[in-house]
Recover the amino acids of this structure.
């Protein structure tokens, strides 16, 4: 991983510079890198956005790989001009032939420096992430809903799938650590509702992630006793 002063050396070594997605911020003196493995066409691009919808990183795909420098906030300026620590980031896939964004599902998100798999892409200065991306097929439908939210203990988790059977469903805390695995409750069905007692979990925010083949969907959960 190169020093911040070296700019996009790592990204250039793996993939060409993007032509379409140009970040609003760059060279802020604060950055991370995300390396994507994705089955996609050369020349298509990956964009990473902060919570304000600002493009803070991009990369062009070549040989099913791209590296994206994610720019963090410059502490020397009064305004937020990048991502802040632990901010949840959004990844989008840009199809260069249709000039349109398409949804992308992320899997196997790994903090390369620690070797730990995490639940989502959250910004951290000098971090290096390795992850797989799958462009979401419009033919596949995957939905997940929870009720009530916030909860005290009992929750209903409902999901619908189309062309696949759910393979696992897990709950993660804000640090990305898995706190409960509900996979054993799944049955071979495209529609299912789980009633689960989560009284063992402490107050706070969690993420429920349902995986179905190469697809993944998540919902935020708040426990408030």
């Amino acid at each position: 991983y190169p020093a911040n002063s070296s700019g996009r050396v790592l990204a250039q070594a793996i993939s060409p510079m993007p032509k379409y997605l140009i970040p609003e911020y760059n060279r802020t003196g604060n950055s991370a890198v995300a390396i994507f493995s994705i089955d996609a066409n050369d020349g298509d691009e990956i964009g990473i956005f902060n919570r304000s919808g600002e493009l803070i990183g991009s990369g062009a795909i070549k040989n099913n790989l791209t590296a994206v420098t994610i720019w963090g906030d410059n502490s020397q300026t009064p305004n937020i001009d990048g991502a802040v620590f632990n901010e949840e980031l959004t990844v989008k896939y840009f199809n260069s032939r249709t000039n349109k964004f398409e949804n992308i599902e992320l899997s196997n998100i790994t903090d390369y420096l620690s070797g730990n798999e995490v639940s989502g892409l959250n910004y951290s200065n000098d971090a290096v992430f390795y992850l797989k991306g799958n462009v979401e097929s419009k033919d596949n439908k995957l939905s997940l809903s929870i009720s009530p939210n916030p909860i005290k203990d009992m929750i209903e988790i409902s999901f619908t799938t189309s062309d696949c059977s759910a393979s696992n469903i897990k709950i993660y805390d804000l640090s990305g650590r898995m706190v409960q695995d509900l996979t054993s409750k799944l049955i071979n069905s495209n529609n299912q509702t789980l009633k689960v007692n989560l009284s063992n979990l402490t107050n706070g925010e969690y993420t429920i992630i349902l995986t179905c083949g190469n697809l993944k969907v998540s919902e935020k959960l708040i426990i408030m006793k």
Remarks:
- The first strand starts at residue 31 and ends at 38.
- The radius of gyration is 19 Å.
